[in-house]
Design goal:
By secondary structure, this protein is of the alpha+beta class. The chain contains eight helices and 31 strands. The chain is about 15% helix and about 35% strand. The strands form eight sheets. Strands 23-24-25-26-31 form a five-stranded antiparallel sheet. The radius of gyration is 31 Å and the shape is globular.
């Protein structure tokens, strides 16, 4: 069974509901789903009608041959009438075979005897022998299993397993060295990007600017789905950003969809990146293979503005932490643009790199600088104040050949200045110490996740050294980098637990077969907390 994790992101502590709600499928929800799904259903019906028409046309061509075959008599398989009055069959009395038999007293003989004479209560509440209310124990057990503590982190992973796509919601318990799947969300297509949202979207009876726990997901489809992470077993997203959210304009939209022409209302190709604005919480930016960047208003779930800064697929976005209207975008056209979303007509500064852009990040410790990773495995560090006259004249502060293959993921630690992690399709994760003279590698590891597609530091100060790593093998691991000797030496001033003795390295993964590990006397725990064979240090 083939599986892979394409992208992941953390949820900060304190945002998840302690007890997630079960999905309630009432009439109002049915009405909402029916409206949202109308366009997909009509499309399916239209395709079915076209297929039936093609089949009918094909049958008409062979009609003459079929009619000639029908005229020929066929004696094969003809059944003869059965005479139940035949002497040989009379002795079995087949005519009364299914009639109920009665005993001498006229009482019906059943398989279970006189079971109908037993007392029956319409409700278990009326039965004196049933003292525990229906489902009370089960509900308490389910509630306890679903509980999320204030010290837990959620970790979201977009996973493809065989031909099924879904979002796995993990719970990470740092003190217990435990990582497990809490619930999952089925997705319509291969997921490419995930962005956590702290604002409710299309949720009834909730203030629109209140704090919430939602997620936006971009896939190979042009629509963006928004889900409530505090509700489990949902059948349909809370909102759809894009064409699928407007079934009432079905006829008009279908023609536009077939043309695949970029427009100002919705994406027409795969969504490659999402970025939520933490200052203006109702704004979500999206980047697409249709070469556009779109700005969505989560209050209305409509596209507020569309931007065309690039000539090829736009693959990465990042909002500025101080100038909250400035958006950094990277593209396969090998350029990076820093544009103010309030002035779409203004000329935006543009930088160039040597190959396709993979990811862009602002420096969380100095807002004047940003990072760019490329397909050639290089990291570029630029000063936004030194914008070049044209992309080919770009002069980075420094460049780093971090990997020999595509640098598919990297992250800058928000709590530990100078701490950077990079992941590559060469299957390695590298940790770096960025000093005034430039970056220096601290350690390189193969964490046995296959090609690395996601490497993210935890967002909270208490777990700042935890790095979530996932890739082409479909497994998720959380590496406590503070337990690595080289990291402890490089960032000793930031490590609170300075044990003088030998520290055992921690790598926490999901125990896929808990029962077998328990039977083996806890051997699985040793593998989880210890250093696995695949953690080869270069």
């Amino acid at each position: 069974m083939s599986s892979m994790i394409t992208t992941s992101t953390w949820v900060p502590r304190g945002f998840a509901a302690p007890f997630p709600a079960k999905y309630n499928f009432d009439e109002e929800e049915f009405e909402r789903i029916a409206n949202l799904a109308k366009l997909q259903l009509d499309d399916a019906n239209e395709e079915l009608e076209e297929a039936q028409e093609e089949e009918k046309n094909g049958e008409n061509g062979d009609k003459g041959a079929e009619e000639s075959e029908d005229k020929q008599p066929s004696h094969d398989g003809e059944a003869e009438d059965i005479d139940i009055d035949d002497d040989d069959l009379k002795e079995y009395d087949l005519e009364h075979y299914d009639d109920d038999e009665e005993d001498a007293e006229g009482q019906r003989m059943d398989m279970f005897g006189n079971i109908k004479s037993l007392a029956y209560y319409e409700s278990n509440k009326d039965d004196p022998y049933i003292t525990i209310p229906d489902g009370e124990d089960d509900e308490d057990d389910d509630r306890e299993e679903l509980q999320i503590l204030a010290t837990d982190n959620l970790l979201l992973a977009a996973k493809v397993e065989d031909e099924l796509a879904h979002l796995e919601v993990y719970v990470y318990e740092d003190e217990a060295d435990n990582l497990y799947v809490h619930h999952d969300i089925m997705l319509p297509a291969i997921p490419l990007c995930v962005e956590w949202l702290d604002i409710p979207v299309s949720k009834n009876n909730v203030e629109k600017d209140s704090t919430a726990n939602f997620v936006a997901i971009g896939t190979m489809d042009p629509d963006i789905e928004v889900w409530d992470l505090d509700t489990i077993d949902c059948m349909y997203p809370n909102a759809i950003l894009g064409q699928g959210a407007n079934p009432e304009e079905e006829g008009k939209k279908k023609k536009k969809k077939k043309s695949k022409k970029a427009n100002d209302e919705y994406h027409v190709d795969a969504v490659l990146s999402l970025a939520a604005n933490r200052k203006h919480r109702n704004l979500l930016a999206s980047a697409s293979a249709d070469k556009t960047v779109k700005l969505w208003d989560l209050h209305t779930t409509k596209c507020a503005k569309s931007y065309s800064y690039h000539t090829d697929k736009v693959c990465s976005l990042a909002w500025h932490s101080v100038e909250s209207t400035v958006l950094l975008s990277g593209s396969y056209d090998r350029t990076i643009v820093a544009a103010d979303m309030r002035a779409p007509e203004a000329k935006a500064p543009r930088w160039g790199v040597e190959s396709d852009v993979e990811n862009v990040r602002w420096d969380p410790h100095d807002p004047n600088f940003f990072y760019v990773s490329t397909e050639n495995g290089i990291i570029h560090y630029h000063d936004i104040r030194n914008a070049p006259p044209n992309p080919s004249a770009s002069k980075p502060v420094w460049t780093l050949q971090a990997h020999d293959e595509s640098l598919s993921s990297f992250d800058i630690n928000a709590h530990i200045p100078g701490f950077m992690a990079t992941g590559s399709t060469d299957k390695t994760v590298k940790l770096w110490n960025i000093q005034p003279t430039g970056p220096a590698m601290v350690v390189s590891r193969n964490l046995d996740v296959g090609k690395v597609f996601a490497a993210n530091f935890a967002p909270d100060a208490e777990v700042a050294f935890r790095l979530a790593v996932a890739g082409s093998k479909g497994t998720m691991n959380v590496w406590d980098t503070s337990t690595n000797a080289a990291v402890r030496q490089a960032f000793a001033h930031k490590i609170s637990n300075k044990s003088e003795g030998e520290v055992r390295e921690r790598l926490i993964g999901v125990d896929e077969d808990e029962s077998s590990s328990e039977d083996e006397g806890g051997e699985g725990d040793d593998d989880e907390n210890g250093e696995p064979e695949s953690m080869d240090e270069d």
